[in-house]
UniProtKB/TrEMBL annotation, chain A:
Topology of the protein relative to the lipid bilayer: Multi-pass membrane protein
Protein's UniProt name: Monovalent cation/H+ antiporter subunit A
Lineage: Bacteria, Pseudomonadati, Pseudomonadota, Gammaproteobacteria, Oceanospirillales
NCBIfam families: PRK12648.1
Annotated signal peptide: none
Localization terms from the record: Cell membrane; Membrane
Sequence ranges assigned to domain NADH:quinone oxidoreductase/Mrp antiporter transmembrane in this UniProt record: 126-400
Annotated Low complexity bias: 935-946
Pfam families, per database record: MbhD, MbhE, MnhB, Proton_antipo_M, Proton_antipo_N
GO cellular component: plasma membrane
Keyword Membrane among UniProt keywords: yes
GO biological process, one term: monoatomic ion transport
Annotated GO MF terms: antiporter activity
Region ranges (Disordered): 923-946
Organism: Vreelandella maris
UniProtKB/TrEMBL annotation, chain B:
Entry keyword set: Cell membrane, Membrane, Transmembrane, Transmembrane helix
One of the GO biological process terms: ATP synthesis coupled electron transport
Statement: the UniProt record of this protein carries the keyword NAD: no
Designated name of the protein: Monovalent cation/H+ antiporter subunit D
Compartment annotation: Cell membrane; Membrane
Topology within the bilayer: Multi-pass membrane protein
Family the UniProt entry places it in: Belongs to the CPA3 antiporters (TC 2.A.63) subunit D family.
Membrane-spanning segments: 6-22, 34-54, 79-100, 107-124, 130-148, 160-183, 206-231, 238-258, 278-297, 304-322, 328-349, 370-392, 412-433, 454-474
Entries under Pfam families matching the protein: Proton_antipo_M
Length: 946, 504
């Protein structure tokens, strides 16, 4: 359980600064430190158990489908990293307390810092690959927030994004790699994975997996060629640089390589790739550390270089090399964090980090000068400091390894070169800042920082010295545990300052002599290199991203266009391909049922239908004619229905046809007078081909369906219409009973259509032309007397007909839908004959409620069946007799049909009324029309000349 | 009343819609109360239904007491219950957000919103192919009306594209259903599954044509590559609560593909088995690629989120294309995540735009925001989740998807999915740093946002951490759902106990 708490406490710590920020900085800093300190103590309390050889594990199943467990382990490696993360983390909190300016939001800073600390602890302790990845990405995110802390600075923002992009990309590769790894090992549990090294190495997917995992590790640990983000991450406040970009986060990649070492390292591929990348990184970083003039830039590149060194050691992979790597992780973290904090102090107290503005600071800041010098000595590898010990071990291993085969002699040579450069840049750092006289004045007058701000540096420097002096006492225990965790078996070693005069010592000496000389002639080297144009990684990176963005925009614009015609074209093409695939599989288009006999009337009807269809398309530029042709199609469809004994359908089709034609005519009025430019001939041909072929495919499919026997369920409806639904008209019983649910949905659709058209037209104000396209003025006779009188006479008749059709619907052709349409047609005629205003005055009610009531009636009819314990929409019917009238039937279906009727009338009139008032001048600018209903708006339009 | 529970997700929004639409103007408080109450009630109903479905029993509701295959049935299984719950959760966030004032920018918002829910819920529940068409119509027209809400040139243009394309799609739906009915003689999907299993060979071509044309329709709804073009502009120009609700709309198409093809063309379908698979698989990958490009190209936050929706569409369809229970389970987890998070992001974009004044959601330098810190935090959570970066739900969903791919599928899915993730990460970090960090110095703009808006966004985005915390139970539910879908016989036997032809 303590393991869980160690991992959890820093995570909970994210909340602490958020909760205590308003109680002052001191309180907040202290409170923030409590939880990580507790976690540190708890880690230390586990050391005895660890020394006893206990396996410290904690595991709770979290998500079995992904093999994700909440599993933590504490072994030597985790211990080493936990100490670094929590220990240095605490020092950083103290340091940041003084570093941040008074008005800066420190609560946010601490929260981000704790988030980062929690994710690092998570990485170090994860006992499950997926869990490890979760924490891994979390470090990228928290580092993004921390680098971008001074968000008003452009370099901070860009640096943050660059870091996130590079490490995020690496993280995604890592996810793929870890999934593969888990797949190969057959488990995502760390212990199982580490134990199945042989299986993993033998797997054919090993190189791919290794590549992906290393991509993750290299991006995180800023290995060449992914190193470029790290120097730009220095835009972060210095505590962040010290913590993330030297001591901990960049070591996550190193940690990963060490952690997975038993599982994935045992191949030649590993040794060659890792050690080569490491050595290039080491030299590259060291060289640029020597060239940089910004204090943090020097430190950043030296960090890159040292990370390379550790990587080389991991690539060599012998037990002693691992030991050296672990030791250097520890040493580098101490001296580099100290150096960064010193750099921060100098920056803080002088206002600059540029070498040329600094110099001679040893007078003003003697203590800082001393501390920095000692830490730099450790970095350079001066004897009696910790850096010396691990560097000697590195030299020893570089001499011993056969990893590069025939060119293995190159390794010690390059290692010495790295040593030379490291001496030179360390010397330069100290000398230029503290001892050389300044060339320019710094912006602020330098003085020593507050003592407590210096305390973390002091602690770390003391550690550097003490470890350097008493390595066996200080580090052996920890390193024994850590190396055992990586290698798998206890390693027998002895840390000592003096090994006698041997080759590594000579290499060290060489490094010092040449390094000092190099710094002495450093000016010449710089002048030489200045002849080459430098590359600013950030600018290149930005340019690449911008060009990707630009290209993407072009690409997406080319892909999408903004053309409805094109979209519809794609839709039809897709339908054509899909239908065609089915069609070609039909071996015999004519089915077993064969063709029905033809007669003259049928042929005539078919010809008319085809004529109507072709003519509609051909005359599409003459909209009125085209519309008339369309109505020919509609009418002949109605006739076809009638011919094949479907009177209900014929009636419906007819009335729908009439209503839609009238509405279309109304809409036509508002279309532009001139049709748009004709498409190019090529496009016409293309469109004709597409439409024609699709038509053929669909016609063929129809033909295939119609010439086959239906195995359909329709006989059930015919048989059950009367006994089950109480009506002889099967179509109507289907509509209101068998499939009443569909009908309920459809009348809702109709009502929504009315509402949508209201929404669309309500704000629309259209120009009403006074003449047609050829300049002919509209007829002054707006309401012809003939039409007026006919419509008036027809209205009661039509209403009577619709009542008749409605009532007989259940047993004879008819029903609510048709009746509703007939009523609507009669009212539309009235509207057209007398004008919207006249009609609205007499039909003084809003239409929306009519449609809604229609839906409500149908719904309530359905709900009524609940009262009798039946499902929604269950119908009931009975026979009653009254004197004079005789026996008649009453069915709930009639009520339902009434709802249909009302919905149809309401929705149709809603559409009509809205179309009619589009040209009203008193149009609200926004859709929020406060008071006016349909009727009111239409009335107001009456005063306008139309 | 409990036996009617299955029909509640349809009846409840229907009745609420009636109450809300009766009067067009005024009664703002009453309308808000009714709408929110109905949505919350829907959430409770959906929760109840989920619990019912979690017993692994398939239950159904025969409308009008007409049994399948003759009448229309609503079918409740794990999948439909899950979709209903996701819809209800999303709707609560959207409707509360709308009550802050978006609802009064036009007419009839709440009524249409409820009827939109009616359409969506009906589509998730129905067991009848033609009834599915009807509900597609309901949700299409309601969404069209809602898209127009508040008006404006961009909306009208986008909505014209939307409605014309989708009406064309509807006609194709009718044709496809007609062909399938002609070939099999039934409309009930379970019955159709039995008949497909016994289909004479000479009719296979017809069924193929019908089924593949149906795939075009569903693909249009789901926004698969050559048919997605309506989506970015429509989503980007929709009013915020509507755009949030639209997050479920593409999932209706995805649901339909999953439902219809797993039921009809499962392992009993003989030569027709998995006839949609290779289409869905390759086009989903292409969609993913296009969406990744779109994400990089977007210069506006809303458009960016719209393309992120498209990324999720590609991912989800790839899950269908893999056609294994593991992949289906992964895609269902991902579906919950992406629906709620992208919904939340659309709402958040509106809030950001309100505070930035003239700059709106365009990714340009703007004024600092009054409540920038809170918005930034929410954006951070949403962005991480949607980009699929830990510690939020997107990462888990993505890992599940990657893990579900097998053999050569990995070769295609992994690089594409990871690269689109990277593209999302880059685009979102650019957007976030421009919106929240790169502001002009000077006057802070905007006024504090309404509490309802904060509630809506937080409600939806809290799914991101919750789905991680509850990853175990959620993924075991989705796994069981996938297993249930892989064995449609349970559903078929429940609906048609007397079916003579055993589809085995």
């Amino acid at each position: 359980m303590t393991l869980l708490w160690i991992a959890l406490l820093p995570l909970l710590g994210v909340l602490v600064p958020a909760l205590t920020a308003q109680r002052g900085r001191s309180f907040c800093s202290l409170a923030t430190a409590v939880l990580p300190a507790t976690a540190l103590v708890m880690t230390l309390l586990n050391v005895p158990a660890l020394l006893d050889g206990e396996q410290l594990r904690f595991s709770v199943t979290w998500m079995p489908e992904l093999a994700l467990d909440l599993a933590f382990r504490l072994d030597g490696l985790s211990l080493l990293f936990n100490l670094l993360i929590l220990g240095i983390g605490l020092l950083i909190i103290l340091y940041a307390h003084y570093y941040l300016a008074k008005d800066e939001p420190f609560g946010r800073f601490y929260a981000f810092l704790m988030l980062f600390m929690a994710s690092m602890v998570g990485i170090s302790m994860s006992d499950n690959l997926i869990l490890l990845w979760l924490f891994w990405e979390l470090t990228s995110l928290s580092s993004f927030l921390l680098i971008g802390y001074w968000s008003y600075r452009s370099d901070a923002r860009k640096g943050a994004r660059m870091a996130l992009t590079v490490t995020g990309a690496g993280g995604l590769a890592l996810l793929a790699g870890l999934l593969l790894l888990g797949d190969m090992a057959g488990s995502f549990n760390m212990g199982d994975v580490l134990a199945s090294g042989d299986v993993i190495l033998a797997d054919p997917r090993y190189p791919l997996m290794l590549g992906l995992v290393l991509l993750g590790a290299f991006t995180k640990s800023a290995q060449f060629p992914f190193h470029f983000w790290l120097p730009h991450a220095m835009a972060a406040p210095t505590p962040v640089s010290a913590y993330l970009h030297s001591a901990t986060m960049v070591k996550a990649g190193i940690f990963l390589m060490a952690r997975l070492h038993p599982a994935i390292a045992g191949s030649e591929l590993w040794s060659v790739v890792v050690s080569l990348v490491g050595i290039v990184t080491m030299l590259y970083g060291a060289w640029f550390a020597l060239m940089k003039t910004d204090l943090k830039g020097i430190l950043a590149f030296s960090t890159v270089s040292h990370l390379g060194l550790i990587t080389v050691l991991l690539g060599i992979g012998s037990p002693m090399a691992i030991l050296a790597a672990l030791f250097h992780i520890l040493n580098h973290a101490t001296f580099k964090a100290a150096l960064f904090m010193s750099a921060g102090i100098i920056d803080h107290e002088t206002g600059t980090r540029e070498l040329k503005q600094l110099g001679g600071l040893k007078k003003a800041m003697p203590v800082t000068a001393l501390l920095t010098t000692l830490a730099a000595a450790a970095m350079a590898g001066v004897p009696l400091f910790n850096g010396f010990l691990s560097k000697e071990m590195f030299f020893t291993e570089s001499l011993a390894t056969p990893v590069l085969g025939g060119v293995s002699w190159l390794l010690p040579a390059l290692a010495t070169l790295g040593g030379i450069l490291s001496v030179a840049y360390s010397l330069r750092l100290v000398h230029a800042v503290f001892f050389k006289p300044a060339r320019e004045e710094p912006p602020k007058t330098p003085h020593e920082p507050p003592h407590l701000m210096r305390l973390p540096v002091e602690i770390l420097v003391v550690l550097c010295v003490v470890v350097g002096l008493f390595p066996a006492f200080m580090a052996t225990g920890l390193l024994e545990l850590a190396s055992e965790a990586v290698i798998g078996s206890p390693l027998d070693f002895h840390l000592a300052i003096w090994h006698g005069v041997n080759l590594p010592l000579i290499m060290s000496l060489l490094a010092f002599v040449v390094g000092i000389a190099l710094y002495w002639r450093h000016g010449n080297v710089r002048r030489f290199t200045q002849q080459f144009a430098g590359i600013d990684a950030r600018r290149v990176f930005e340019r690449i991203l911008i060009s990707i963005g630009y290209r993407s925009e072009q690409l997406i614009a080319a892909l999408e266009g903004n053309s409805l015609q094109r979209y519809v074209g794609w839709l039809w093409l897709a339908a054509l391909v899909m239908g065609g695939i089915g069609l070609v599989q039909i071996t015999d288009l004519t089915g077993a049922a064969g063709n029905q006999p033809l007669d003259g009337i049928l042929i005539l009807g078919a010809v008319m239908l085809m004529f109507g269809g072709v003519a509609t398309a051909a005359t599409h530029r003459y909209r009125l004619i085209s519309l008339l042709m369309l109505s020919v199609v509609g009418l002949f469809v109605a006739l076809t229905f009638a011919r094949f004994s479907a009177p209900d359908l014929a009636l419906t089709q007819l009335s729908v046809e009439v209503v839609t034609m009238i509405l279309l005519m109304l809409a036509l009025f508002f279309l532009p007078q001139k049709t748009p430019r004709e498409s190019s001939p090529l496009r016409n041909v293309r469109d004709m081909l597409l439409a024609g072929t699709l038509g053929l495919v669909i016609a063929s499919l129809n033909y295939a369906v119609m010439t086959r026997d239906t195995l359909s369920i329709s006989s059930f409806f015919v048989e059950n219409s009367k006994p089950g639904g109480g009506g002889y008209n099967v179509v109507n019983v289907i509509l209101v009973d068998f499939r009443g649910f569909d009908t309920l949905g459809e009348i809702t659709v109709l009502a929504i259509a009315g509402l949508a058209i209201f929404k669309l037209l309500n704000r629309l104000r259209l120009f009403m032309p006074h003449s047609d396209g050829e300049g002919r003025v509209w007829s002054p006779d707006r309401y012809p007397a003939v039409l007026t009188s006919i419509s008036m006479t027809l209205l009661p008749l039509a209403l009577l007909v619709s009542a008749f059709i409605f009532l007989r619907g259940h047993n004879q052709p008819g029903g609510g839908f048709i009746a509703g349409l007939i009523t609507a047609v009669a009212l539309i005629l009235l509207y057209m004959a007398r004008g919207v205003a006249w009609a609205q005055e007499r039909l003084d009610f809003p239409f929306q409620p009519v449609a809604v009531i229609g839906v409500a009636v149908a719904t309530l009819t359905g709900l009524g069946s609940w009262l009798f314990g039946h499902p929604f929409l269950t119908s009931a019917f009975g026979y009653f007799s009254l004197p004079l009238i005789g026996t008649f039937e009453l069915a709930t279906a009639l009520l339902f049909d009434l709802g249909v009727y009302l919905a149809v009338v309401g929705a149709t009139l809603m559409i009509l009324a809205n179309l009619g008032k589009v040209t009203t001048a008193h149009r609200p600018v926004t859709e929020t029309s406060g008071k006016d209903t349909d009727a009111a708006a239409a009335t107001s339009s009456a005063k306008e000349p139309r | 009343m409990m036996q009617h529970l299955i029909v509640f997700p349809v009846v409840l929004p229907l009745v609420a819609g009636i109450l809300l639409l009766y009067q067009r103007q005024g009664l703002v408080r009453y309308k808000r109360a009714v709408s929110v109450a109905a949505t919350v009630l829907l959430l409770l109903v959906a929760t109840g239904l989920l619990r019912q479905a979690a017993s692994d029993q398939v239950t159904y509701y025969a409308l009008g007491d007409w049994q399948a295959p003759f009448g229309i049935v609503l079918v409740l299984d794990r999948l439909s219950a899950l979709m209903l719950l996701v819809t209800a959760v999303l709707a609560v966030g959207a409707v509360v957000f709308a009550c802050a004032g978006d609802d009064e920018k036009g007419s009839n918002f709440h009524g249409l919103f409820q009827w939109q829910l009616l359409g969506i819920n009906g589509a998730f529940l129905t067991g009848d192919l033609f009834n599915l068409f009807v509900f597609f119509e309901v949700l299409l027209l309601a969404s069209y009306a809602l898209l127009l809400h508040g008006g404006g040139k961009a909306r009208i243009q986008a909505s014209v594209h939307y409605v014309v394309l989708n009406l064309a799609g509807s006609s194709l739906f009718l044709i496809a259903v007609g062909i399938l009915y002609g070939a099999t003689g039934t409309l009930n999907m379970a019955d159709m599954a039995i008949r497909v299993a016994e289909l004479p060979t000479e009719r296979e071509g017809l069924v193929t044509a019908g089924a593949l044309m149906l795939l075009v329709v569903f693909g249009l709804k789901a926004a698969i590559l050559p048919l997605y073009f309506w989506l970015p502009k429509a989503y980007a120009s929709a009013p915020a609560p509507v755009a949030a609700l639209f997050a479920i709309m593409t999932k209706v198409g995805i649901y339909a593909i999953l439902r219809v093809y797993s039921l009809l063309f499962g392992d009993t379908a003989g030569g027709l088995e998995a006839l949609e698979q290779s289409w869905v698989w390759w086009l989903s990958l292409a969609t993913l690629a296009a969406a990744g490009v779109g994400v990089m190209a977007a210069r506006d936050l809303r458009l960016l989120v719209a393309y992120l929706v498209l990324v999720s569409v590609g991912t989800l369809l790839a899950g269908i294309g893999m056609r294994s229970p593991q992949a289906v389970s992964a895609l269902l987890y991902y579906l919950i995540h992406t629906t709620l998070v992208t919904g939340g992001l659309f709402l958040l974009a509106e809030m950001i735009s309100l505070q930035r004044g003239k700059a709106g959601t365009r990714l340009v330098k703007g004024r600092p925001m009054v409540q920038g810190a809170g918005l930034a935090m929410l954006f951070f959570v949403g962005a991480i989740a949607v980009a699929g970066v830990p510690p939020f739900s997107g990462a888990i969903g993505k890992a599940l998807m990657l893990n579900a791919a097998e053999g050569t599928q990995r070769l295609w899915l992994w690089p594409l999915l990871l690269l689109t993730s990277l593209a999302s990460l880059i685009a979102l970090s650019r957007a976030g740093s421009t919106l929240f960090w790169r502001s002009h110095r000077g006057n802070i703009s905007g006024s504090p946002l309404a509490r309802r808006q904060w509630f809506g966004v937080i409600w939806l985005l809290s799914a991101a951490p919750l789905l991680v915390a509850l990853a175990g139970p959620v993924s075991s539910y989705t796994q069981a759902t996938a297993d249930q879908l892989a064995n449609p016989q349970v559903l078929i036997r429940t609906l048609l106990p007397n079916a003579t032809g055993d589809a085995q």
